[in-house]
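If you are new to this repository, start here. Below is one unmodified record pulled from the training split, so you can see the exact layout before writing a loader.
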Amino acid sequence: MWRRTEELTMQSYIERFLADLKNRKRYADNTIAAYRNDLHQFMDYVTQSQISDWSSMNKQDLVGFQLYLRGAHKEYAASTLARKLACVRSFCHYLASSGLLAQDPAEGLDSPHVERPTPRTLTSDEVSQLLQLPGTSQSSKGRRDRAILELLYATGMRVSELTALDVSDVNLSTGTVRCGGRTSQRTLSLGYNATQALRDYLEQARAQMINSPEQKALFVNHRGERLSRQGLWLVIKGYVKHLGLDESITPHTLRHSAAAHRLSGGANLAEVQRLLGHASPTSTQVYARLARAAKAEDSDPTYAAH
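And here is the target side for that same chain:
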């Protein structure tokens, strides 16, 4: 059985590893939280398995953890299982590269195959309905929501990127917006519709919504504070429900739709990869499978580029 000091030592190395992911590799806070949970689960497994010395872990111990997850947690989706194992592999790589393990027990360990699901996308008609709905209200909230939806569809940016935007990130005179973290920062074209919606929001609504003149956030909630990811999710869900669309539609669906519609409209994979901020083209290729179907269904697949 592990000694308490062994457990504390592993905990300290987990925190060092997570700090490295956050500070050097710029992993998102949500990813860090998920990895912390995964590694604590792994530490519990090692403790319960009576592995006397964690620094002598071998490949069989990691295979045992994989079998444990499959047997004790049948509710885990394949993608969840793959993430947990990838996290443990990365942790072992870190320990070995730091000299804390003599050998990397994860070296050569196979990853479980996960079929990437085909993303749900909207037709151009559904997108048009969604974008037009907030415009039926001249309230500050309606102007804000129209700007949010137009921006999401025109740029394909992530929800976390949109909620992190400051007013200074938008340049209406050039029709561009700067978004993303250090590893995915990019400047994207807004297009006419998103530029006009943002101009209307900034000139007619935002000043009435902010809680302080010093507020930097581009989009704020009803309290005048930065709009959260959850708040944005609720905004989208409200309009989706009003239109009677599939309730599985999320803010990320607009990102999927922007990518698929651009490919359908003739954009190449490299252009869409840059738009989405994908580090690898592999992440973008899933949208190529949707392009022909989206083109057949949509009456105006190039809307996002207008």
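Two things worth knowing about this chain: The domain at 124-305 is CATH 1.10.443.10 (hpI Integrase; Chain A). The chain has two domains: 4-97, 124-305.
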